[in-house]
Amino acid sequence: MQASPASLILALDTGGTNTDAVLYDPDSGAVLAEAKATTTHHDLAIGIVGALSALAGKTDFASIKGKIRSVNLSTTLATNAIAEGYGHRVGLVMVGLDSGQDLVRDLLSRLPAVTPIFVDGGHDYYGREETPLDEADLLRKVSGVASSVSAWAVSSFFSVKNPAHELKALELIKSLSDRPVTLGRHLTGELGAMRRAATAALNAGLVVIVNRLLDAVASGLSEIGLSAPVMVVKGDGGLVGEAWARTRPIETVVSGPAAGLVGAMRLARGFLEAGQGNMWVLDIGGTTSDLAYLDGGRPAVSGDGAMVGQWHTMVEAVDIRTRGLGGDSLVELTPSGELLIGPRRVLPLCRLEELHPGSVTSSGVGASPYREAQLTFLIPNLPPGPEMGEDETEILAILGKNHGLPLKLSDYQASCLARGRIFPGLSVLRHPAILASALTPTDCMNVLGLYGCGSLEASHLGAGLMASRMDVGVEEFCRRVLDRMGLILAGDILGMALERENIRHAAEDMGPDHVLGRMLSGQKGGLVELSLNLRDPLILLGAPAGVMAPFVARHSMAAVVAPPGCQVASAVGAAASTVSLVRKVDVVTMPDFSGFRAFLPDGLMDGLRLDEVVSRASAFMSRHMGELAALAGLAGEPLVTVERQDREARLNDGTRMVMGATLVFRVSEATLVQALGAVSAA
After folding, report:
1. What are the distances in angstroms from CA 477 to CA 306, 338, 460?
2. How many contiguous H segments (helices) and E segments (strands) does the chain have?
3. Half-sphere exposure of 184 toward its Cβ, with a 13 Å CA cutoff?
4. How far apart are alpha carbons 373 and 622 in whole angstroms?
5. Cα atoms found within 13 Å of the Cα of residue 592, Cβ hemisphere only
6. Residue 309 contacts by C-beta under 8 Å, 6 or more apart in sequence?
7. Strands 239-241 and 30-38
């Protein structure tokens, strides 16, 4: 197929398990070539170069690389890090908040790796300073912990109304530390002090992770001799430039799934009836599974923020439910024999044996109450950070002396006991510098011959160990693992469907002794047989989509389709995505009704009349949106449109009084596409 000059898009999707690459012709909507490689977490460039090289090998790359106008990237690395509770240690500066508040204590107890700093300051709802910022105290506390954090986050009380204290804190922190700083006000304009602080802290913890990815992409492109602007898919499905993504990586949360929804519509067209656009989309990756519903071919956008695991962020994203469950999820058994899968990602035993022959098959399994630990291994994953705990530091030191070879968790536990220490379980080793390897659903697929992956013997050993505890055969155990995955995923679909129908339900209703659990399990016999049906088809995406289709279909009662190309759907969607920028400004009446106040991104704007303030705010935001567009990697003066919605109050005499307005500013897609073309041609 021939493509017009300078019109091709090369797309990459870097997930927790695989890195996909596609060459896409946007004029025809055709995928010209596709390739896949294993994501190499210790050095992401290796996997990226592998995928790019494989793609180049399928095309006459030397003759077409001059026609590539951009490299579009989607990723699940940020999503995975949050879902698994990973992240580099962050110094979280909370201005005007109290460490004794219950909400603050709850927030800090759940954030993965945070050093909190509390200082006086903050504003009120109208942006008026309530308490001056204690600059001396901030400098003293920042100086005391600067060497132990990888990044900073600042969140000030009512900073969305007046960012002055956050901006001053940024200046002071920069005078003492060269680590990146995230301001809560720059990520969201919504009220909610706790969620804004959490979003800022999560963003700061992701800076190192996403910057490593973008550095690896640059290295990979250089190695194949390709020079083109890099664009990144945000969680709302729009594109931004590389520089933007480096400072606001939280906006790439659910990037991969958002791109997958675009890809799903393209790949599923041949399996849908004419005009059909309603469907469920389930993207099963190595680390997470992502669920969304398309209504008329369009995903809903959650203006209230993306949900990832336990975290309700304040970043606008498509309405996707993410669960820490995938092909590389950790499989465990409780003391009572209950199967647990996820949320932690581990390296499948079959892949570990492939990388380090003999590490699993020659390890031996003795009689011990911790037998599973004898087939659980620890290997170096990323460079160590300054914030590592005692156990992680010790393990990395041992791995270093062992030339980076896998360390059996049971051996480390034994050495701890010999020194009178309480040994750590796998759950407490949370630093991304260390990757665990243990039994996964991928190993179970391998045993059943459904998915060829690495060493079959290693997968058999791990599955056999757990099967013996359940007193079942190895293949039966593996089928139970995959069936359990299918049941969990079907439950998520049903739960989301009931929510969309405004039908109340409780999580415990998914158990086998409850109505919904009976429906999902398809249990037959007895006095009552229950069943349910989903009206719309379920499109499965991801590498294990074909394998998991019958296990999900058994419980979901839906028409399940895993279309050709489903393994690289997110890369296809990344190629087909376009750029978008949206910002909101609130205008409120002053408390004494003396005028109106607009809350702009970096300050306040007052005026006597609403129309006057709206006009001045619109002029400012037109310039500001142009600046954002440039930061997003776009050229030229973009066309900005504004939607105005006035807020009214009914007075006692029945008349209405205008109390303010909400202004939504957007950069038009056509202008941005033209700007992207200009950047590519430059």
Report:
1. 35, 12, 11
2. 21, 31
3. 33
4. 59
5. 2
6. 82, 83, 84, 85, 322, 323, 324, 343
7. unpaired
Indicate if the alpha-carbon torsion angle 64, 70, 72, 73 is positive or negative. positive
What confidence category does residue 672 fall into, taking pLDDT thresholds of 50, 70 and 90?
A: very low
Record the pTM.
0.70
The CATH fold assigned to 88-206 is Rossmann fold (3.40.50)
What is the distance between the alpha carbons of residues 523 and 149, in angstroms, rounded to a whole number? 52
d(CA 25, CA 9): 6
How far, rounded to the nearest angstrom, does the alpha carbon of residue 73 sit from its chain's CA centroid? 14
Q: Residue 548 is inside which H or E element, if any? A: helix 545-556
The pLDDT, as a whole number, for residue 682 is 30
Q: Which two tokens stand for residue 25?
A: 């012709």
What is the reported pLDDT for 397?
77
Q: b/e for 424-461, b at 16 or more Cβ within 10 A?
A: bebeebbbbbbbbbbbbbbbbbbbbebbebbbeebbbb
Q: pLDDT value at position 637?
A: 63
Helix boundaries (H) for 61-192:
61-64, 77-84, 102-110, 135-145, 164-174, 184-187
Kindly state the helix (H) or strand (E) to which residue 55 belongs, with its residue range. helix 44-57
State the helix-helix crossing angle for 164-174 and 135-145, rounded to 10 degrees: 40
Q: Collapsing DSSP states into helix, strand and coil, what is residue 56?
A: helix
Q: Where are the beta strands (DSSP E) in 160-246?
A: 181-183, 230-233, 239-241
Which tokens sit at 349?
């035993």
Determine the pLDDT at residue 629.
80
**b vs e for 634-659, b when ≥16 Cβ sit within 10 Å of the residue's Cβ?**
bbeebbbebeeeeeeeeeeeeeeeee
Instruction: Cite the DSSP H helix spans in 362-440.
Output: 390-401, 409-418
pLDDT exceeds cutoff 60 at 506: no
Where would I find the H helices in 448-538?
456-470, 474-500, 515-521
Nearest to 113 by CA among 75, 153, 141, 143: 153
Phi and psi at 352, nearest 5°, equal -60, -45
Q: Which residues pair with 22 in a beta bridge?
A: 11, 34
Between CA 560 and CA 279 the distance in angstroms is 10
- What's the burial of 513, exposed, middle or buried (CB within 10 Å: 0-12/13-18/19+)? exposed
Question: By CB neighbour count within 10 A (0-12 exposed, 13-18 middle, 19+ buried), where does 389 fall?
Answer: middle
Q: Which two tokens stand for residue 49?
A: 């170069």
Phi, psi of 163 (to 5 degrees): -85, 10
CA distance readout (Å), 211 to 181, 214, 216, 565: 14, 5, 8, 29
Q: Say if domain 8-82+211-256 classifies as CATH 3.30.420.40.
A: yes
Sheet holding 640-650, edge to edge: 603-607, 596-600, 582-589, 656-667, 640-650
pLDDT at 678: 35
Using CA atoms, how far residue 570 sits from 74, 273, 357, 541, 574, in Å, is 7, 23, 33, 9, 6
